Amino acid sequence: MRTQMKNPTPVFRMIKNIFCTGLLLLAGLGCVTVNVTFPESAVQKATDDYVRELYRAKEKGHSPVPQPSPSLTPTKVSHGFTFVEAAWADEFIFKVDSATALQIRDRLSKRVEEVVVQKRAGVLGESRDGMLVLKEPGKLKKLFSKKIEVLVSDENKDRTELYAEVLSSNALPATRLIDVKRSFARSFQAESPSGTWLQDADGNWVQKS
């Protein structure tokens, strides 16, 4: 005599649905790509703090002390991913306060006042890649123009070293250098006075109002 199976109870169906959903979630883990190696918000906050400290020191009339300060402690970010992504994400710490980075900031501070004066006069600009640019050399007398060219060269030499140091101290690959530079570029542009020439993401130049 063959025994017929009764229809599944509601409880059985619910358990079956939960089990199937769990399998689908596990299968989906292999398809989730989470970028935790370069969280832009953490990097931007860190570079903003670094540049802000540089410009605030100018306003106070002295160089920043070359040691970590509360505003320049490593930036920690707890990523707001879904519970699936959270399984892959770790807390990210982005550092801009290594000994070398602070020494560079001290050197930058020694010329920041003149840089600001020439930015305000519309002579200098901030590129999208974090470099200082001589935009209006015609506004300068020939002898003084040479002095400003040296100023720009020295500034960019220090900035280039800074970006390389930040990349190295955070163990980031060379492919992330452009991201570091552009993050600093946004920070420098934000702190620049009215009159500064700014290059946008598309390469266009506008004068800050």
Question: Would you write up a description of this structure?
Answer:
There is one protein chain. The protein is of the alpha+beta class and 209 residues long. The chain has one domain. 52% of the residues lie in helices and 9% in strands. The chain has helices at 10-29, 40-60, 83-86, 99-109, 112-120, 142-169, 177-191; strands spanning 75-77, 92-94, 124-126, 132-134, 197-199, 205-207. The strands form two sheets. It has a four-stranded mixed β-sheet. It has a two-stranded antiparallel sheet with strand order 1-2. Strand 3 (124-126) and strand 4 (132-134) form a beta hairpin. Helix 2 (40-60) crosses helix 4.
Helix-strand string: HHEHEHHEEHHEE
Share of helix, binned = 40-55%
Number of strands: 6
Biggest sheet: strands, sense, closure? 4 strands, mixed
Main sheet: strand order:
4-3-5-6
| Tally of distinct domains | 1
- Termini gap: 92 Å
Radius of gyration, whole Å: 26 Å
In the predicted model, the low-confidence regions spanning at least 5 consecutive residues are 24-36, 65-90
Mean pLDDT across every amino acid position: 79
Structural class: alpha+beta
The percentage of residues in β strands lies in: 5-15%
Note the total helix count.
7
| Coarse morphology | globular
